[in-house]
From TrEMBL:
Pfam families: Flavodoxin_1, ODP. SMART domains: Lactamase_B. In the N-terminal section; belongs to the zinc metallo-hydrolase group 3 family. InterPro entries: Flavodoxin/NO_synth (IPR008254), Flavodoxin_CS (IPR001226), Flavoprotein-like_sf (IPR029039), Metallo-B-lactamas (IPR001279), ODP_dom (IPR045761), RibonucZ/Hydroxyglut_hydro (IPR036866), Rubredoxin-O_OxRdtase (IPR016440). It comes from Amedibacillus dolichus. Gene3D superfamilies: 3.40.50.360, Ribonuclease Z/Hydroxyacylglutathione hydrolase-like (3.60.15.10). SUPFAM superfamilies: Flavoproteins, Metallo-hydrolase/oxidoreductase. Residues 256-396 form the Flavodoxin-like domain. It comes from the Bacteria. This is FprA family A-type flavoprotein.
């Protein structure tokens, strides 16, 4: 049975949710599931804005057919060619032989790479200068290359002022019947999932997101309809402000993120002691995570959030403890910048993890390493505890500067 909601009188959400998938992109845990959004515009012409993942194909087709109510589908606009949004192009092409597929030149070439579909006479290739009239509704195309694939575009519907934003402004999380930002717990649920989605999937492309935000700023937008997560209509400013911070790598919180790895508990002890010292210094925005039992996508999201990051890791075969290494690798490849770090190393016979972490951080833009770096030889002693106290003071001074 179909399951749809209207986002306006003439535009229907025809997407769906998957609560069975454990890992999005086979990488990211999604305990709250994930939604794949698609939208059908009903006018003199009918126009579908993207499709959905193969996992919810049946629900999606039922939704589209119900919303069409016997009409045919004239256009499919493909804003993003990632398979979780384009998995039903073939199915729709077969069901609606007269349907035209609308995309930019890259989109059309990607369709041919993914599918064996005869596209002759079926495609409309658009540029940013083109418009597509559906009757009362008119679509304009706003290219957003590398947010986060090269073909990505957003479509702006001028009569109802709707931005179909592709993956931008999307989030993990299945819909609970609710669809709009004013129907959900924004801060406790959706914003943290939007942060984890953005930072891990789009985070590397801050400059490209900035370009897309500038283009969006020139539009009069009443509603943002992304391909994942909630539809933004009342709290658009909140997500736009977050995108401004995330895409410029500006911390959301002036506070301290303490990340530690530990086998026998001694580095963990040092992390806890430092956190307590920071609290004694009057710092209360502190978050402590064990890198071994917190998914790296959460560590990345928190790293985009906090201004100061303490890394505490044992030495492991003359290298960085593997779970910390894995985090650092992601952090660097996702291009995080403008952070103050502090380092705590541990080792029993030749501590080297501090030096190795320092080298790893060296290439990060706008990065400061606060001194002293603390060395622990197996377990914290009075001497290394005193070093931690000096480090806590240095972090406090940096936070208050
Ligand atoms: C597989 C393995 C490799 C290690 N490699 C080194 C090393 O190269 N250099 C060193 O000083 N300690 C090394 N250690 C020892 C730990 O780094 C050291 O005991 C540290 O204090 C452990 O901290 P923790 O109590 O937080 O787990 C190694 C330990 C293990 C299990």
């Amino acid at each position: 049975m179909y399951c749809t909601r209207n986002i306006t009188d003439s535009i229907v959400w025809v997407g769906g949710s998957d609560r069975r998938l454990a890992l999005f992109e086979n990488l990211f845990p999604i305990p709250r599931g994930v939604a794949y959004n698609a939208y059908l515009i009903l006018d003199e012409k009918t126009c579908l804005m993207d499709t959905v993942d193969a996992s919810i194909r049946q629900q999606f087709i039922e939704n589209v057919l119900a919303a069409l109510d016997g009409r045919t589908l004239d256009y499919l606009v493909v804003n993003h060619m990632e398979p979780d949004h384009c998995a039903n192009i073939e199915e729709l092409a077969l069901r609606f032989p007269d349907m035209k597929i609308v995309g930019n030149a890259k989109t059309i070439s990607f369709i041919q790479q993914f599918y064996d579909l005869d596209l002759s006479d079926r495609t409309i290739t658009v540029t940013e200068k083109d418009t597509l009239s559906l009757g009362r509704h008119e679509l304009h195309f706003v290219f957003a290359p590398m947010v986060h694939w090269p073909e990505v575009m957003m479509s702006y519907e001028a009569s109802e002022k709707i931005l179909f934003s592709a993956d931008a402004f999307g989030s993990f999380g299945a819909h609970n019947g609710t669809l709009f930002d004013d129907e959900v717990e924004l801060d406790s649920e959706w914003m943290s999932d939007a942060r984890r989605y953005y930072t891990n999937i789009v985070g590397k492309y801050g400059p490209q997101v900035q370009m897309a935000l500038k283009k969006a700023a020139a539009l009069d937008i009443a509603l943002i309809a992304p391909l994942h997560g909630i539809v933004w209509r009342r709290k658009m400013t909140e997500i736009l402000e977050k995108y401004q911070l995330w895409s410029t790598y500006t911390p959301e919180e002036t506070g301290v993120l303490v990340l530690y790895g530990s086998m026998y508990g001694n580095t963990e002890n040092a992390a806890n002691v430092l956190a307590a010292m920071l609290a004694d210094c009057g710092i209360h925005k502190i978050a402590v995570y064990d890198v071994s039992n917190t998914h790296v996508s959460q560590l990345i999201a928190e790293s985009f959030r906090y201004s100061h990051i303490v890394l505490a890791a044992p030495t492991y075969n003359n290298e960085i403890y593997p779970a910390m290494y894995n985090y650092l690798h992601d952090l660097k490849s996702l291009n995080l910048q403008k952070r103050s770090f502090a380092l705590i190393e541990n080792g029993t016979w030749g501590p080297l993890s501090g030096k190795a972490m320092r080298e790893f951080l060296q290439g990060i833009k706008g990065m400061t390493i606060l001194e002293p770096s603390v060395t622990i030889r197996s377990a914290l002693k009075e001497e290394s505890r005193a070093q931690l106290a000096v480090l806590a003071d240095a972090i406090a001074a940096s936070l208050h500067s």
